[in-house]
């Protein structure tokens, strides 16, 4: 397996002026005829260069150049390419290939899912359909004819607009699609099947009517309304926020059950994992509804950030993904509660992305090399990439940032460009020097900011000193200082916001301000202060860093109660909780008795009974830091001690605040029927959080309350709110309720996924045995990524069980991966991630985790995806 380096990039030798594809879809074999109009893009006076096309996993049927079949000696076929050593400057190449989509379990290229044909071409799936320069900087005009049996496949779709349709002999029919926009092969899509369609329309800001069509299985016809509504919201939002209008006459979305990732932004024809489309109140939780809105928005926003302006090469992946993540986060923030959305995004970044940065696969937002590009669809490229865009907006200000976006789209519409082109547009539009900022794209690792302060009472000056450093990462032992926007505020002891006046500036300054940190150590002086303030640091989580400031517990309590920025207010509570839990972890490790921390209980009670009107925010504030986040804070992770300490805290709070939890839950429950977007999702969340705390008491009366909620619930949010705690409850009712749930929902694949996950995530001692048994359950499907993730993926997130000291959890994961690797290497490689963090554990677990990685390493003919992850992590 070879490594590809960013610096080896060369422009393509041949470009494709146009491509005509004809698919004859069959039950046994599928025939693909491709006609490429190719043109040399280099100066031929310096010598002729061979035509090299990518292609694999199909049978080559015929090959001709300008209408004449190529003699066998005129071309060479290798495992991954077709080489034609001598070609004219401009010519037509016709290629005929034969495929077996029904055998394609990799789920890339053309494959079958649930009786339909569909495609997934990003990043390099197109090459398993036909020979092609399968790279994002070759843009072409596609015309696609799809031929299939009319009865089985009444719906035939591809990108763009329908051009022609008709009947053919033997009960077949065809439709020809034409996409007027030049696009790279990774944005090609095709769908054929017996599908229901729900329709709507959208009038763009310039008055054009766009037909919106959502295709799904007939049985799911009633489940697409929310996705379509979300699409219309996203289309309007992009016009209003970024001035971006949709460009084709129709926008199609297809839901498929077998899909490696979340969704795919193919031009005019998005293909979605059905879990990001289908929802009814009975089958989807509030969180599912929000995720659907976000992913629908994400794929729609790609139409500009990704499709109209695409990536020059895959090292530039964050150009489209970081930017689009930022756009979808902002969309969701505008649709929901901005503060709560920011907290959720920070939570994800600090668990998933920080773990990447601290592990053997750490890479910069713009990687320097890869073996398998599919392994680089990571939280670093996506979410940290999104944070870099957010920092640019903070540094430039909203107005100049928008000017930069406009300039970027204007300059590069129709092009395949680089991250550097994006940053240059931002620099040009703002006249800012972003030289140092560019290091964020090239240096991996999470910077640490250590802050300290002092106060001179005599002259009322508060001094903040900030030191930044960044730990070494693979291939990058030393780091240069980053350009970091540090947004700060100051509070007095009564919790009032103070003006932030930099020494030497006229008073009073604004109540929040952006400090630009760009050296290894920097000092800021704030004047005009009567008493020592409490600083609110990193408001809005203004940079993806770890911040260390020696807050005293009473500072944190003050920030929890009074800070104006929702992130900082939430973060104060998280820090306080983390301090307390980590000291319990130390007690547990030392064999000391665990004792309640009364100051923390008091602070928590104050929050619980504060009457905070944003119930979703309150739920976030009352949720203890996750086991994974706590693990991030420890030099050597002890999953058992973390679990015990966190459970002890939950039990302590539930014991001491029992009546408060009951009262808040009661106040948040409503007799009204559930409504999507009824404005009560925050209340449901808080009520269910209170129930989860109360269930830790293992009291019969509470268990009955929980079962009653399960039985009377009219929506999946409250059903799961009851089932989650029940799944971890050692009570006789548990198995009845879980059985009842399965029996009721066995016909709904997405709900059955929830059932598998509930069981895999249970706290109870028999969870590993249960997970093993579930592998043999008739509803378990090895080859369906959602199902595999629901059981095996969820189990690997169950910290105490996955990290069982005897290694049985690791063994279970690898036993299942050994079966999945031959079927789906891409999904297998992603699910290996929890094992790659072995260096963070004590020697016993380290050895067990490595041993399991070696079992995979020993497989003959390891696929490139898996090989790369295993080799880099061992
Ligand atoms: N751009 C899409 C990425 C994607 C993908 C990548 C590799 C293999 C399968 C895949 N399915 C979708 C999704 C997105 O970020 O919008
Ligand atoms: Zn994306």
From TrEMBL:
A Pfam family assignment: DUF3458
Catalysed conversion reaction: Release of an N-terminal amino acid, Xaa-|-Yaa- from a peptide, amide or arylamide. Xaa is preferably Ala, but may be most amino acids including Pro (slow action). When a terminal hydrophobic residue is followed by a prolyl residue, the two may be released as an intact Xaa-Pro dipeptide
Keywords linked to the UniProt accession: Aminopeptidase, Hydrolase, Metal-binding, Metalloprotease, Protease, Zinc
Molecular function as annotated in GO: alanyl aminopeptidase activity; metallopeptidase activity; zinc ion binding
CDD domains: M1_APN
Domain (Peptidase M1 membrane alanine aminopeptidase) ranges: 227-437
UniProt domain Peptidase M1 alanyl aminopeptidase Ig-like fold: residue ranges: 445-549
Names of the cofactor(s): Zn(2+)
InterPro entries documented for this protein: Aminopeptidase_N-like_N, Aminopeptidase_N-like_N_sf, PepN_Ig-like_sf, Peptidase_M1, Peptidase_M1_dom, Peptidase_M1_pepN, Peptidase_M1_pepN_C, Peptidase_M1_pepN_C_sf
EC class name: hydrolase
Domain Aminopeptidase N-like N-terminal: 86-187
One example of a Gene Ontology biological process annotation: proteolysis
EC assignment: 3.4.11.2
Annotated ranges, domain Peptidase M1 alanyl aminopeptidase C-terminal: 554-874
Keyword Zinc-finger assigned: no
Family stated for the protein in its record: Belongs to the peptidase M1 family.
NCBIfam families: pepN_proteo
Function: Aminopeptidase N is involved in the degradation of intracellular peptides generated by protein breakdown during normal growth as well as in response to nutrient starvation.
Name of the protein: Aminopeptidase N
Designated gene of the protein: pepN
